[in-house]
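FAQ: What does the model actually see?

It sees only this:
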Amino acid sequence: MQTRYKNLFNTIIIPVMVITDIFLIASYWDQNNQQTRYGVLAVLFLIGFNLIQCVFKSIPTPWGPLETRSETLDVIRWCVNLSTSMYIIWCLNIDEPAVAAFFLLLLTFGAMTEVYRQKHKLVTVGMAFVCFCILFYGIYPLAIEDRIYMTACYLGLVFFIWKLERLMIGEITQFILEQKERRSVEKESEGLQRDAAIGHSTKAINHELNTLIGVANLSAFQIETNHNAHNDIEQEMKRLDRTLSHMNRVSSLVLDGLGNKKAKVHTISLQELESDLRLLISTNNRVCKTQLTINFPEKSEDYFFEERSGSTFLIIHNLVKNAFEAVDEVHMGRCTGKVDVDVTVLDDKFVISVEDNGIGMSELKIVNIKQQLATTTKLEGHGLGLKFVQSECIKNNMILDISSKIDTFSVFKITVPLIQR
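And it is asked to produce this:
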């Protein structure tokens, strides 16, 4: 607060004082007068003395280094400024007492506003008043009534400046405290928003985690019931292994990835993604009622991309799960429903498309999804699945495009950049 206060007034005081000094020297310069030359030397001394305070952070002394921006040194500097300025007024032969009074009043204002603490202000104002008395009771031959009048005016203006400066510092303090409080509230609000976003994403991922746990339990149950069929056991063991692997990846996303731009990234092939989809999504118990197709390009093992560990499978799984639910609402379990997963390679990218002939979505709902608003039309839903999809697409540098028509269809397209191996 003290530093801000001083910097504010220095931007006003220093230019005004420099201009006033130049005006005085230009107005009362007399090159034939030895006394005037002494005044110029005093001005140069005063400039050098103040520059030292501005340039150096500390001044070495026999008693140890003295901090140049300390409150004590500011008081000393202004005492030197005031006494030297009184000497300059005498050297320049300024014969108008009003000019001298104005110059001294300007210096008093500078001393009062740059020195921060009340007791230090009293010292600088005391020095200013001593200089005033020397000027108008010693140097200028004024009548006693004029001296009393000048003294009363000077003290009245000093009192006015003092009260005005106190009022200004009160306003500045209040303003800075309000700014500090506002920043604190904004920071707390950002933290709450981030916590809320993490909570929403955690709920969405938790749904996927529960689904994977269900797949694992189903595989374990089928291993128990079909222990005589060797081929079935091998297939279920493979499915169980892949499910556990994805459960670990989901846990990694929850613990390390949410809100973390430096979350672990790895490279996988389209073949690996296809294997996971066919192995895990096809176990959904609604597949028998809905026609599910998964189409990947040939030689999918030649195409690679980067992802936050496990994200792409979870994105597609979310879209397929939502597609199943949308289809069920329209076709009521009949085999007329369909969900198609197609992957198409285009130059340096590939497009994952999930299409269904379900309930569809309105334009407003599509906008809400893109704006990261959690919405749902399902009685038991939370609307966080598509929010998770949009969030993970952003974090993986993928592009999500949605087109839909109510009671007709929905198409979700994810554009993913390929990498060269």
